[in-house]
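Look over this record before class:
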Amino acid sequence: MSICIFLKILVGLNCFKIMKMKAINILFLIVSIFFISCNNNSADKPKEDPNIIKTYREDGTLLASYSLKNGKKEGKAYNYYKNDNVNFEFFYVNGLKEGIVKRFYEDGKLYSQTPYLHDTIDGVRKIYYKNGIVSSEIPYNKGNIEPGLKEYETDGKLKTKEISIIVNSSNNKIQLTTSNKSKNARFFQLTGAAPFYKKNEIPTKQGIAMINKNSKEARIIEAQITTDFGSLQIIRTTIEASIVKK
């Protein structure tokens, strides 16, 4: 065999070995990338928490999610709009709402914050415009709306004006009206202890109520007015015994 032919064969064998080695390296690289990709995909998709319960509407959209502990709701819970945005955000302790319950507009902006204590509204509930400005502050005491409502314009300017109950006494009657002469005012006589008063409504016509002077004790009177924003404004006054007795 000539030297030239021998060299050609040698070169050919080397090229084949090089190509074979390259193919093996490429195959190894593809397999490595595949396994890395699988591992990454597993990390991107965390396992569902079996302790979280989800309920759905008839159309298949998510309605609510919450966790249970000893058969009672515990921790954060959510209600959802059909677009999957959160409608309500709750926090439960031993099945009772505690802390701030948040409600949102359908576009995700905050609508209200309501404080709860042992599943009862207690504190100042705040409602917001979509621009983030507070629209109203409604005070509660153990589930009962209290005097002190504040309502605001969209620019944050206080809209609520101070209102009082006007008491006019004549002969055997006492006339009750409000200082803003509201025609939708309703009047109640309160008995019992705060904040769980028993409320006995006094017949009212066009924002004017009349009561008889037939008591030897002072009376607590409450007026309720529905504002332009739809909130309930509470005003209270005490009529001294010297006025209510005959």
Q: What stands out?
A: Residues 147 and 234 are 5 Å apart (CA to CA). Residues 165-244 form a domain with the Immunoglobulin-like fold (CATH 2.60.40).
